[in-house]
Write a structure and sequence with these properties.
about 60 residues, 2 helices, about 0% strand
């Protein structure tokens, strides 16, 4: 019975220690920030939208 209790306690101690290590590592790591390769704002000359025949048909179907 005592051996069984020691095994349980040892297991719980290891679980507790492991979770503390994981929590500590997560607190230390800096979050990654995404960097955009595309310029933003008025400097960008790229047109992201153009009206095509398919769009015109779709918009016309919405009106009716």
């Amino acid at each position: 019975m005592k051996k069984e209790q020691k095994k349980r306690r040892s297991f719980l101690k290891h679980i507790l220690a492991g979770s503390a290590v994981v929590a500590g590592a997560a607190a230390i790591v800096k979050p990654a920030k995404a960097e955009s390769g595309l310029p933003r704002g008025p400097q960008s000359d790229e047109v992201l939208y153009h009206e095509s025949e398919n769009f015109k048909k779709y918009y016309k179907s919405l009106r009716s």
